Fold this protein.
Amino acid sequence: MTLEVITGPMFSGKSTELIRAVKREGYAKKKIGVFKPSIDSRYSEDNVVTHDGLKYPTFVIPINDDGIKLIYDIVKRENFDVIGVDEIQFFPTSIIDVIEKLADEKIKVIVTGLNLNFRGEPFEIMSTILPRADNIIHLSAVCATCGGRGTRTQRIVNGKPARYDTPVIVVGGQEMYEARCREHHEVIR
Ligand code: ADP
Ligand code: MG
């Protein structure tokens, strides 16, 4: 049916928006399945949980090709009308083929993903999926420094901006990340 992509930095309300959207589908009596990558065990093993504690049950999926196939098999087995995928940037790029295939069928697919990594560079998977979307919701957070438009994710290590040459994927919450605007986003080179 359609592919909708919800994007923005951490704390911009992507998971909140995903939960709102799938709950609405529930009122329309649709069969709903929500998936998330197993890497993101920040708050709960089997729920999408937002930064302010809202929850929705999910299938937790390994981030490899078997996991991608598993998503397809579960959707077919359960006959879902609507599926959500949270934190898509953690999955291999091969998930895009499966998502496109499902969206080409009668399924409404809603995914969320970070726009940029902590360096301020796009996640490859998002660059590939955004142009394919039927609808894009671009959210922003509040800059932790000035209260302006927080469009970027700031990683902080020992109270200082993280170095450019540190790994892109380090799972953490408010102890490690902030939303920042373009002006206040910092990377140490
Ligand atoms: P995301 O999935 O994009 O990381 P969530 O939906 O989990 O975002 O969380 C959004 C919530 O985070 C907001 O409703 C708000 O309560 C909280 N929050 C914490 N810090 C900020 C911030 N700097 N800007 C906006 N919201 C914030
Ligand atoms: Mg989220």
Summary: Residues 2-139 form a domain with the Rossmann fold fold (CATH 3.40.50.300).
